[in-house]
Design brief:
alpha/beta, seven-stranded mixed sheet, four-stranded mixed sheet, binds 3-[O-phosphonopyridoxyl]--amino-benzoic acid, Aspartate Aminotransferase, domain 2, 16 helices
Length: 445
């Protein structure tokens, strides 16, 4: 029936039409978890139950939920300017936000390209890397290097350089000319490390092997998460990122840090690049830039990259790339208010000091039933569980559901539980998260 012929009231308001992303739809629709409201550290479900948010939404609501200054900025913006064209036009807040983000970024990373999701930011960074070499007369630099256990979103670029088999295997051959570094996790050498593990810096040297195989003249960029988030919180081994930077420099390869999770205070600094003392050529960001309130993402790049494009006739477009909603006014307003709130409440510094409490509490779970590793960095932690025989992820999914029933939301990936509270988290919240997890772990077989 055509839409015009069908009265709206006759459209069923049921759970069927919405294909829920990255979710087992049939199981979910039998027992949906529906959230209708949020404030600070808590969610409220459709039946009015409060649930502590132990994962800042999906690692994004760093300022806590529904913070008044951000809500008001979005409301005001919606009433003032809905949307100007993003190409050939702009609006003042886009420039203001770019300047504010550039000021937070390390070194000479001082130009910002706006996108709407981490996946778009990753594709943008990869495209800028290829185009950068191209305009400098090095078009043979067309290979991209990612890393096993890397998550860079779900675009074709991101899954190509990413290293998660389930996200790749159904989707054909992806981008050509991609190679992968080995991941940096080794339980035997690293289990129960606090912060960055001592072992593993040498794994960066694999980049030299890849260069020897393909030749540097064919390689455009290396992209890594400075701390892998989605695949289970893998802090970089001490010295690893420094070595990666040195090898990239030696061979003229651009280094991209995907900071979609680590950006905006998660590790106690504005960006992980600052935390680890390694300056990449580009940083991708998303999530925390608006504290999850309005979709926004982007790429911060070094001055030299931007400048390389600013040649030739001035009326010609320098980069054939962009999105209808690049620097959307609602997102810019939310971003400006969010950055102001981070500053006013010193939330990055707060994350750095709470990280010590978080680390100490989290590691008290060592020795609890099923726990085979605990990892942490800044306000991110992971508890890895022994998988059930022939049932990868089953035990951990049960733990995850039981925690939710007991009023604590955490994230689960395979047999790893990830915890990443908002930066406003207090000791009592950390205690509640850890103690709920402890009691559930003891109760689940
Ligand atoms: N890069 C990184 C490092 C990410 O963590 C993306 C890119 C993609 O962002 P978008 O906005 O396109 O989703 C991400 C996203 C989880 C989880 O539970 C992690 C992400 C998204 C959803 C769930 O680990 N990270």
């Amino acid at each position: 029936m055509s839409l015009a012929a069908r009265p709206l009231a006759s459209v069923p308001n049921d759970l069927e039409a919405f294909w829920v992303p990255f979710t087992p739809n049939r199981a979910f629709k039998k027992a949906p978890r529906l959230i209708v409201r949020a404030k600070d550290m808590h969610y409220y479900t459709v039946d009015g139950k409060a649930v502590m948010d132990g994962s800042a939404g999906m690692w994004c609501c760093n300022a806590g939920h529904n913070r008044a200054p951000i809500v008001e900025a979005i409301q005001q913006q919606a009433a003032e300017l809905d949307y100007p064209p993003a190409f050939q036009f702009s609006h003042p807040k886009a420039f203001e936000l770019a300047s504010r983000i550039a000021a937070l970024a390390p070194g000479d990373l001082d130009h910002v390209f706006f996108c709407n999701s981490g996946s778009e930011a990753v594709d943008t960074a990869l495209k800028v890397a290829l185009a950068y070499h191209n305009i400098r007369g090095e078009a043979s630099r067309a290979r991209l290097i990612g890393r096993e256990r890397g998550y860079h979103g779900v675009g074709f670029g991101g899954i190509s350089v990413g290293g998660i088999v389930a996200n790749r295997k159904m989707f054909g051959t992806m981008l050509a000319g991609v190679d992968h570094l080995p991941h940096t996790y080794n339980r035997e050498h690293q289990a129960f490390s606090k912060g960055e593990p001592e072992w593993g810096a040498h794994l960066a040297d694999d980049l030299d092997r890849i260069v020897a195989l393909h030749d540097a003249s064919t390689i455009a960029a290396v992209i890594v998460e400075p701390m892998a988030g989605s695949t289970g919180v893998l802090p970089p081994p001490k010295g690893y990122l420094q070595r990666l930077r040195a090898i990239c420099d030696k061979h003229g390869i651009l280094l991209i840090f995907d900071e979609v999770i680590t950006g905006f205070g998660r590790l106690g600094t504005a960006f992980a690049a600052e935390r680890y003392g390694v300056i990449p050529d580009m940083i991708t960001f998303a999530k925390g830039v608006t504290s999850g309130t309005v979709p926004m993402a982007g790429v911060i790049m070094r001055k030299g990259i931007y400048d390389a494009f600013m040649r030739g006739p001035e009326h010609v477009i320098e980069l054939f790339h962009g999105y209808t909603y690049s620097a959307h006014p609602l997102a810019c307003a939310a971003g400006l208010a969010t950055l102001q709130l981070y500053k006013d409440e010193k939330l990055f510094e707060r994350a750095a000091s709470m990280a010590k409490v978080f680390e100490a509490r989290l590691h008290t779970l060592k020795g609890t039933r099923h726990v085979i590793d605990i990892r942490n960095q800044g306000l991110v932690g992971a508890v890895e569980l022994q998988p059930r025989a022939n049932a990868l992820g089953a035990r951990t999914f049960e733990v995850y559901l039981k925690c939710w029933e007991k009023g604590v939301m955490i994230r689960q990936t395979g047999d790893i539980i990830a915890i990443a509270p908002a930066l406003i988290v207090e000791e009592k919240h950390i205690d509640e998260i850890v103690e709920t997890l402890r009691s559930v772990l003891s109760a689940v077989d």
